[in-house]
Predict the 3D structure of the following.
Amino acid sequence: MKNNRLLTFILLFSALLIMPLFANSQIIEVGATGGLSYYIGDINPKSHFSQNKFGWGASLRYYQNSRWAFRFQYSNFGLSASDAKSNYRPERGLSFQNNVNDFAIIAEFNFFDYWTGSRRNFITPYIFGGVSFLTFNPKASDGTALQPIRTEGIEYKLHSMSIPFGIGVKYSLFKRVGVTLEWRIHKSFTDYIDDIHGVYPEVSEVLGDYSYSDPTGNYEPGMQRGNGTTISKIGYNSDWYGILGLTISYKFILPKSEKCNVGLNEKFYRYY
């Protein structure tokens, strides 16, 4: 709870800091993203790019200079996993599907000078990090929402915060069009994206069909259902998710502002 409140404050504070930059900026890029999404958690604790789903998104990027950029990123993507397709605990018989909405503020650092449209500085690898707010709603394979059933005897929130980070490559295709290939990983602050965390509950604690909690009928209340209390010491007491995305962006050059730095403007427009 404290982590979520802290990250919410950081997200709002970062937005307040970055919004004036967008308002006064002269180089803004609008992008559309498509790619693969995957989850790491109680069903799939360590395999990247396993049981992939499709995701899409939109972004608004502001270039502070040739090395630093900031962007707002919206992403909508599916996450799913099944014990039947995993080598971790196939005998447990659990599965889930989810649709996630993610709103992120991200800072990017280019290893080389880069401007979309430049004939000299047209490609660069980059790294990035930020903070995001996400909403989710885990469901069973038949589409039944799992959170209202209380499959572990508790009710959890359907929103959380996460820390996105990763690597990518930017390439300028045309004067106003650029493309990026990016691998983004999110460390969330919830362990319920998959509806799995702790132990099997008492039958009386479940508000619905108990088979959604234990589809095999082989487990007793109090036995371990998820990883939340068993491997938390090595950092897997929350769910992670990743996105491998390709973004095509279009550059807008806004009218010059008298308040803008002249030296920076000269560098901005030298290559266009």
User: Anything to note?
Assistant: The beta strands are 27-40, 53-63, 68-82, 95-110, 123-135, 159-172, 177-188, 240-253. Residues 230-235, 257-272 have pLDDT under 50 and may be disordered.
